[in-house]
Amino acid sequence: MATARRATVSTIRPLITPEGVDLRIKLVDAGTRAAAFLLDFVIIIVTAIVISIVALFGLAGLKGEGAQPLFIVWIILIFFLRNAYFIVFEAGRRAATPGKRMLGIRVASRSGAGLSVDQVIARNLMREIEIFLPLSIILGRSEMGLADTLTTIFGLVWTLLFALFPLFNRDRMRIGDLLAGTWVVEAPKLALVEDLSQRQNARAFRFTQAQLDAYGIAELHKLEEVLRRDDYFALKAVAETIGRKIGMMVDAVDSRAFLTAYYGELRAQLERKLLLGTRKADKYQR
């Protein structure tokens, strides 16, 4: 039991929000990350098979003419599929692919700020070098009859070195995480916080337009994390910080109700602005 407790503590890391609150996140072990990737890989393979079947029907319709351009288009589509899949899902609000969501994990920025699109692109394009490039070389040479034992061994060793990298660093990071400044953390599935905004004490708080304009999307995401964790001291610290910034006094006992109400109204305002083509990334944007 003591060993298990030490192992748990060793995966706990500080994650400081823009308001200076330590969320104390828990890193995901390499096995869970591998399982999430395999789930995503299966989804990608199934989608690629569907695209391939459609391409074959298109080739049959062309009666053999234009096979090479169609093959090139197919290669481009598969390339964008395996990269866009990870980038689009991880750049979303949940910062997680379907595979990660199934296992209750997500990507987070090590700086504590909101996860940026640049970080998501960097960590996922590195996967091309880590995994897909050596495997593509092996498959390509095999199709041309040029693959040999040395090429196969080189490609497999290359893939294994990158794939096993999370086992040899204390933060369980891929090379892509190291370069992008990200890590993968646990994101337990809890009740949606907006449901709590229906409580009477949450509805007691009202905010002006100027008070809601104090924060943006990055802070909204961090506020949601604070509410999901439901830690009394974190709730109190964030409520005090936001209260000072927007000019409201918040009692400690009302911290959760205040933050729930503010989260609900801030989210509604940001969604309205997005519909109008306005996007406030964080509190620093005017």
Shape: elongated
In percent, how helical is the residue content? Answer: 55-70%
Helix- and strand-based class?
Answer: mainly alpha
Give the neighbour order of strands across the main sheet: 1-2
Which assembly state applies to the chains in this document? single chain
**Sheet of most strands:** 2 strands, antiparallel
Unreliable stretches: 1-9, 191-200
Cα-atom radius of gyration: 23 Å
How many individual β-strands?
A: 4
Number of helical stretches of at least 4 residues:
12
Mean pLDDT: 77
Order of helices and strands: HEEHHHEHHHEHHHHH
Salient structural properties:
mainly alpha; 286 residues
Give an overview in words.
The structure is a single chain. This protein is mainly α. 62% of the residues lie in helices and 5% in strands. The strands form 2 sheets. Strands 1-2 form a two-stranded antiparallel ribbon. It has a two-stranded antiparallel ribbon with strand order 3-4. Helix 5 runs antiparallel to helix 6 and helix 10 runs antiparallel to helix 12. The longest helix is centred in the first third of the chain and has 33 residues. The chain is elongated, with a radius of gyration of 23 Å. The protein starts with a helix and ends in an 11-residue tail after the last helix. The N terminus is likely disordered.
